[in-house]
Amino acid sequence: MLKLGHVAQLGEHVSHDCDDGVGAALAFGAVGVSVLFSLVGGAALSVIGIIFAKNFLGLVSCPDELLEDAALYFRLYFAGLPILMLFNFSAAILRASGDSKRPMVFIIVGGITKLCFRLTFKLRLSDLY
User: How many CA atoms lie within 13 A of 78 on its CB side?
Assistant: First the structure.
């Protein structure tokens, strides 16, 4: 929901682009603010999630025998949050400027890559256990 304001502002600047380039300059500024906000916000949420992982899991009554492994998974998930937020904001920026094909291609490539990594690690780790 936070990215909607940036996307609306960017869409307005792109649609009102004049020949003097003022709209393009304002759109470039909106993109910069969006990228900066996604990285700073993602880093802040990442730090909060890593520090308070066990507390969050305690709120949802995680069983004690699973707490350590669940906290590790939670911390790893939150460590990747800045990249996830950067992708989401970037995809929203591309969609706001009228390019919906490129975010779809990125999602497809990312999904295939994730599948390959999961299969690779699953097969490699299953040999260890």
Answer: 20
